[in-house]
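Translate sequence into structure tokens.
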Amino acid sequence: TVTQRRDGRWTAALTLPNGKRKWLYASTQSEVIEKLESLKRSLRDGRDVSAVELTVAKFSQQWLAAVKQSIRPKTYTTYSQLLRTHIIPEYGNVKVTRLLAAHPLALYEKMLKAGKSPSTVLHVHRVASMMMSAALQWNLVNRNILKAIKPPSVPHREMQILSADEARQLLTAAVGDRLEALYWLALVCGPRAGEMLALQWKNVNLDAGTLRITATLHRRNGDYHLDEPKTKKSRRTLNLPPMLISKLRQHRVTQNEEIRSSARGAWQHNEFVFSNTIGNPLDITNLLRRQLRPLLRKAGVRRSVTIQELRHSAVSFALSRGVAPIDVAQMAGHSSVAVTLTRYAHALPGATLRASEAIEAVMLESLTTTLTTMPARPNEAVRAIT
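Result follows.
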């Protein structure tokens, strides 16, 4: 039933399978008829009819609430920010069932014109696609329109890895630096940046020469949080070589003296291995901009290397010197050896040659064995008899 009210608005009603009447409203007759037909299609397809009036903004809240317990806090914050900053302002008022490919395409074009990086656009696309996949699973829509859209390609950034000489230059330049021990730890044991910043002295046994990775540090809303490590294999114990033990011993003494003299009443007794001057954990952005980059310049290293890429350098050093991949994977906290081999194949110089030579050796050995055990040729056998 489609009728026009006294105020000029149009209304339509449809009886649902449960016997209740569903009322629809619009400013024009054609719009209310379109809503009515959409509702009928939803009923025919077995979809949730409540989706007819459900906006992208409202559904995004439902989706975030549903996934919150199954994703890391940092990931949840990222999803929320991307939705709030980009998706909701652009088409948050659009009904989920009326979302078209044109909506995200227009958003991507607008973002790129505004100077946003292709990487940011790709992140937005992935979040939107995950959200619409959930809408499909929950029977709110009959397809995920994001699957038909090709996001912008992101230029591949080569992993920056220090050479052994550059690493030595960096450590030489770091002598006497308040974070000298951090650079040694990063380049010798290769923990993730967040794992290093989450370290507390209770995790370190310098007498036994061990260090336990039990958490990772993230910043959310201006405050720091200790979260679970990235994977189950990320919880691990690292064995420390003598020089690193010595550096950490000296670091503990120096850092405590520094905090006592500068923090005074503001001292936060958090016992972080690497802290700022009042005892709070370091900020990763400040660490990169104010500490590592100036140190790289001082060392004469021209590469723009991040804290995380010091880890990559450590893993590459170990593999290139013949350390077994399974041992390197355990040190790095990778979920599997396959991750180590896939991500750091470049660190295995001559690997394909060694593989080919090994196979060739087997083939030659088999061929030699075959030749020595072959029977004589027929004519040679006849001559032998005669």
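Note: The chain is about 55% helix and 10% strand.
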